[in-house]
Structures are given as C-alpha cells and as structure tokens.
Amino acid sequence: MFFGTLTLRLIIFRLEWGWLVKVIGLTGGIGSGKSTVSQILAELGVVVIDADKVGHEALKPDTEVWREIVVAFGEDILTSTGDIDRKKLAGRVFRDASSLARLSRIMHPRMYDMVRAQLEGYRRQGTNVVILEAPLLLEAGWTSLVDEVWVTLASESTVLKRLEQRSELSESEALARIGSQLSLLERISRADVVINTDCELKEVRARVWELWQGLQSPKAKRA
Ligand code: ATP
Fold first, then answer.
1. Which residues line ligand 1 at a C-beta cut-off of 6 Å?
2. Lowest CB count within 10 Å: 61, 139, 169, 207, which one?
3. Taking the chain (223 residues) in consecutive chunks of 10 residues, what is each chunk's mean pLDDT?
4. Nearest CA owner, ligand 1 atom 27
5. pTM, entire model
6. How far is the CA of 75 from the centre of ligand 1 (A)?
C-alpha cells in the first residue's frame, strides 16, 4: 500500500515537473547557428549530443564504417596515420550527389544506433531534456528519435559571410554544401520551433532562454 502511494506520488511529481526525458532535435543548414544555440543550451545545463562527434567516433580506424568507406572511396581517402581524411572525403561527396548518398548509406545507420544507445543511457539516468544537435536530422530520417524538431536559420548571404570568416571553405565549396542540403522552406515546414540567428547574438540568447524556460514547464506552448 505504502509503495503503491509512493509510486503514484512519483508519477504525479514527474508529470507536474516535467521530469520526463524530452529529446529535442536541433538541426539547420551549414553555418545556420546550430552550435551557437546548443552551446547556449549547454551553458543553461542542458545535455547535448553532438551528432558530428558521433560521426567522428563511427569513422575511427578499423571500425566497420571505416572499412566500408575505404572499400567505397579507396585508400587515398586515408591520411598517413590510417585515419579517414574527413576534409578530403567531404570535398568528394559534396560535389557528387551519388557519393554523398553512398556515404550516407554507410554512416547513418551506424550513427543512428550510436545516438539511440546514448539516448537510452540518458533515459535510464532520468535526464530531463536532451538536445540532439544533428545537421542531417531530417535528411537522415532521425525524427523518430526526437519529440520536437528545432531548426536554426539565417539568410544565405549571412551564412556565406560566416563561412568566409571561418575560412574553412571557398565560396564555391560553401555553395556546393548549401546546394546539397534541404531547402530553407522544407526545413521550416518540418520544424516545431524556428530559431532565427540572423540577428545580434544577444537576441539569439534571449530566444533560446525563452525556449529553455518553456522546457522547464512542459505545458508551456512554444511558437
Ligand atoms: P556548421 O553547420 O558549420 O557546424 P552551425 O550551424 O553549427 O555551423 P555555428 O557554428 O553556430 O553554426 O555558427 C557559424 C558561425 O557564425 C560561428 O562562427 C558563430 O560564432 C557565428 N554566429 C552564429 N550566430 C551568430 C550571430 N547571431 N551573430 C554573430 N555570429 C554568429
């Protein structure tokens, strides 16, 4: 009887305080502000899973994914230490849709399993909210892993400026990446929440703060 009442109280406590794990998929185009938003959320104490890091883990030498990529793209994709040269690989696949599709077919299922295992771990720990920052969340069909989709966006000219400042890609490489992605409209149509980052950082912070507060009270509505 005592344990029955205790369990009931625990359930009520969870429902009232939102102590149920909620997974937010944070996605958006290249340079649209995903990391900026996830960093603000991490500073607020939210757990973040970074799908890029999961991808790097999956690519480690002698893993199944590593072997399949070497077979698919040849040994010249490797550095002298046997690691996959990610820059070289990206240079190849973002200029050729069939190579990108091939790489996705190799990597996405493994990454999906790895992300799912991490989410299970957080569920077991009773973590309140988890952010899954995944550039390809929609493209890879990972929405089944999340409860809500949050999309960051910025205009193409802002993104190009940001990428130029980071000097990682030439303008033509940046445009090739943008061209290989889902369109802005498609992303927006599939979003539960849109976060515009084409504004001052303090405005982005204020928006994320507002969203974070909404997460603390599960009944609050987010626009
Ligand atoms: P990628 O897809 O390349 O990983 P991303 O979507 O994670 O990019 P960020 O890394 O968050 O995007 O942002 C790209 C760059 O733009 C960063 O240098 C970041 O500091 C800067 N940035 C993002 N939002 C703003 C903003 N509102 N004002 C000024 N700079 C910004």
1. 28, 30-36, 135, 162, 166, 197, 199, 201, 204
2. 61
3. 65 52 94 97 96 94 94 94 93 87 95 95 91 95 95 94 84 84 93 97 98 76 45
4. 201
5. 0.86
6. 33
| SS3 per residue for the chain | CHHHHHHHHHHHHHHHHCCCCEEEEEEECCCCCHHHHHHHHHHCCCEEEEHHHHHHHHCCCCCHHHHHHHHHHCHHHECCCCCECHHHHHHHHCCCHHHHHHHHHHHHHHHHHHHHHHHHHHHHHCCCEEEEECCCCCCCCCHHHCCEEEEEECCHHHHHHHHHHHCCCCHHHHHHHHHHCCCHHHHHHCCCEEEECCCCHHHHHHHHHHHHHHHHCCCCCCC
